[in-house]
Design a protein that fits this description.
This protein is α+β, with helices and mostly antiparallel strands. The protein has one domain. It contains two helices and three strands.
Length: 89
């Protein structure tokens, strides 16, 4: 993740989620999203897949692929997914 002057000191804070997918130029954005469990306490702060998809769609990205890694570490198994998005707008 690159530096963004709009981020708070805690880069994992939900206050910074919008900054994670600011479009810089056309291309691909690959995201290993974890935890996808919707919990609001943290860190790590959880979120839903719909929140994640909404952030990218609002910024002109389309989802190319989505899958659950088979080799997740035990404590993340089922709580992380790999997404690939492409900037289209």
């Amino acid at each position: 993740m690159g530096y963004n002057e709009n981020m708070t000191n805690d880069v994992n804070s939900p206050d910074n989620w919008d900054s994670y997918c600011e479009p810089k130029q056309d291309g691909l954005f690959i995201d290993l999203a974890c935890p996808l469990d919707g919990r609001k306490d943290g860190p790590s702060f959880g979120f839903s897949d719909q929140e994640l998809l909404g952030l990218f769609e609002e910024r002109g990205f389309k989802q190319l692929s989505r899958n659950k890694p088979a080799d997740s570490i035990p404590r993340r198994k089922g709580a992380e997914e790999l997404f690939i998005f492409q900037k289209i707008a």
